[in-house]
Amino acid sequence: MLKCALILVLSLGTLASATVTVSAPKNNSTVATQVQYVASATTTCAKGVSAMGIYTAPGVLIYQIQGANLNTLLELNPGTYNTVVQEWDNCGGSTSTPIAIRVGTPNGGGVFVTAPQANSTVSPTVQYVASATTSCSKGIAAMGIYTAPGQLVYTIGGAELNTFLNLGPGVHQTVVQEWDNCGGSAIAPITITVAAGQYGGVFPSLQKQGGWTGYALLPTDYNICSSCSPSGPQATWSMTQNVSSPSLSGHSSAMAIGGQTAYADILWNNHLIGDFSSQGLPDYNHAIIPTLHNFTYDVYFYVADLNVSQALEFDINQFVNGYSYIWGHECRVAGGNEWDIWDNPGQTWHPTGVPCNPIPNAWNHLTIQVQRTSDNHLLFQSITLNGVTSTLNYYETPTTTTWYGVTINYQQDGNYKQDQYSVSLDNLSFAYW
User: What is the CATH number of the domain that holds 163?
Assistant: First the structure.
């Protein structure tokens, strides 16, 4: 097993002697993608209000201003947001007002972009994943991507798109647009920064590629069991690729575990770059891996019965210049519905305070972003589950190693009865730059 990080969980306190009045937007209203927030605050603190801010999700403070008044425009992607307007006074107090909104278009249509995240830094090969809705009875005709005003670089028929674009370094004001069969249209602006660098790319659809190896991890030390086999009896496991249902792409992979040992885990590992590369990038001259600092793990997963899963784990690993960087992320399910992250020097997990509540019998979309900093630390940047981004910004220290490469892990943890269960993975991509 793995685990790591201490995240500051912001508690939105309420003081009876303070108020936050929001005049726009209205609670439970539908608004356009450019949302105007107008609010004011009062307090009985003799020193007055220090600042005001807007959260678009728990822990995601996207706007802050000094003083007791705010009036600003936010660019938000279509979707449902439980926003919060908060004030902080100069006596150490705080209060807030929740404002739930649905961002869309007046005709009931909307463009919903799950990748890339707005205002994120991405690799030169950028994955776009989006869908569209409309009140037009004839449905969606097509969707497209603009990389700059007037530059339509990609179109596809229907109400969904999933494609990769190669973009140059710098800031790009991209737009994803839908056109319906009634003459209507809706857009979602997505501003991204493409990182500069000689090397970078994306491995798409890794769930259907070769190179995956499964290992049993048994309590209490959870080291790899050298005597275990997929047929058991201590632990059993299998990976069935190119499954058509349930599937988004028609090529999902079913990851199944079971066995006789309670709380046994199964780890699947794939060597992507460097030593034992399964993707044709062995990097013998060490020209690629030392230049890589940013990584994004993006996957859809489907679980029929979440109650029997103790936890699901998604890891990014880089071994370079004698150091081992392990960004471990574990969604505790039966273990408590919270994200933990891995402390490699301490060999333990740390709770983040970020909830993890996957939806049963549905596709869940997970995006994890991490970075190897310029001073050689691990930075756990963010976790996005089903459109809700939780910013971590937690730093950790690497350990030493003689390995050289970039790998990813996926792991399923068994419960107290080691109930057999399966998880389907689809559209698993890994970006590096």
Answer: 2.60.40.10
pLDDT tens digits, 300-313:
999 998 999 999 99
| Same domain as 192, residue 261 | no
> What residues contact residue 93 under an 8 Å CB cut-off, 6+ apart?
13, 15, 17, 18, 43, 45
Number of structural domains (the chain) is 3
What is d(CA 286, CA 98) in angstroms, rounded to the nearest whole number? Answer: 51
Q: Is 86 in contact with 68 (CB distance < 8 Å)?
A: no
**Distance from C-alpha of 260 to C-alpha of 235, rounded to nearest angstrom:** 6
| Residue 289 zone, left/alpha/beta (φ > 0; ψ -120 to 50; rest) | alpha
Say if pTM beats, i.e. exceeds, 0.85. no
Q: Which two tokens stand for residue 309?
A: 């899963």
What is the average per-residue pLDDT within 131-149?
Answer: 90
**In CATH, what number is assigned to the domain containing residue 274?**
2.60.120.260
Domain that holds residue 152: 110-196
Helix (H) or strand (E) holding 397: none
Which residue is listed with tokens 């994803």?
Answer: 176
d(CA 390, CA 17): 30
Are 79 and 138 found together in one domain? no
* Residue 207: both structure tokens together: 């769930």
What pLDDT does 144 receive? Answer: 95
What is the tens place of the pLDDT at every residue in 312-347?
Answer: 999 999 999 999 999 999 999 999 999 999 999 999
Sign of the C-alpha dihedral computed for residues 243, 244, 250 and 255 taken in this order: negative
116 and 219 in a single domain? The answer is: no
Give the Å distances, CA to CA, from 52 to 9, 69, 91. Answer: 18, 7, 14
Instruction: Please state the φ and ψ torsions of residue 400, each to the nearest 5 degrees.
Output: -95, 155
362-382 b/e (C-beta count within 10 Å ≥ 16 → b):
ebbbbbbbbbbeeeeebbbbb
**H or E element, residue 174:** strand 170-180
